[in-house]
Amino acid sequence: MTGWTVEHIVRAAQYLSFLSSPPIQSNSTKYPNRRAKNDAKLPRLRLIRMAGSMELPAKGGFSFDLCRRNAMLEKNGLKMPGFRKTGTTIVGLVFQDGVVLGADTRATEGPIVADKNCEKIHFMAPNIYCCGAGTAADTEAVTDMVSSQLQLHRYATSRESRVVTALTLLKTHLFNYQGHVSAALVLGGVDVTGPHLHTVYPHGSTDTLPFATMGSGSLAAMSVFESRYKEGLTREEGIQLVADAICAGIFNDLGSGSNVDVCVITKGKTEYLRTHQEPNPRTYASSKGFSFAKGHTEVLSTKITQLKLKPEVTEGDAMEEE
Prior knowledge:
single chain, alpha+beta, 5-stranded antiparallel beta sheet, 38% helix
């Protein structure tokens, strides 16, 4: 379609309609020369038909070329990359004065709990915070990058950041990477236009909702929201509902656990309630601690490398020695 104008398209359509029309049946005895003239035009018409079929754009529809290519590569032994299973429960809701965000604090690495008290509610602006689910490095990097861009924007305009600005920066960045940046986000904040709550998916699609959940524990949290959410919630009711939704994810999803973090954003004020609840503390901890005798873990090999210190010679000392 590059370089085509409306006039070109109309002319091409006229050519195609003319070529597809049935030939005119003439009486060869009455008009002997007309049949010969039509026969002489046939090669030229075939050329026009071929040229039109080559230059016209292909019809719309889904192309399976890449699917066939991937099937061929997989058949030849290439192992296609799979998605990484991550565990998190992040939620958010809009109440009468602002937005409440919530998250659990368990970070996993496969079947291992890597961190029992990590922060999943990220600072974006004084009036905007963002909950992250997915790969921890991706959520940290994306939110830090957009947070610095919002800071520069505030320096340039001397105005408070808007939630839609953060949303546009996040969705544009994630869409450019086509889902390879594994960051699923719940963005919330209050600006001059009021409270806003958005969800951002790893491929760049977004939703604007009064309450939202994401992560592996999102189904359990959503069941709490759908059964108890109502418009006009007070601050205390919103915090309690968010905490209960996070607890539902903690107790029903193995990838979510530990504590409940809550962030309350209102006009001109933000409260980050770190470790708001501890729903499943350790039931037993030895007062003496744990000690293990030598020999429990076998030492396979030992190597000691001596480090040699190199004297530093400055330029002045070198000149004096000369």
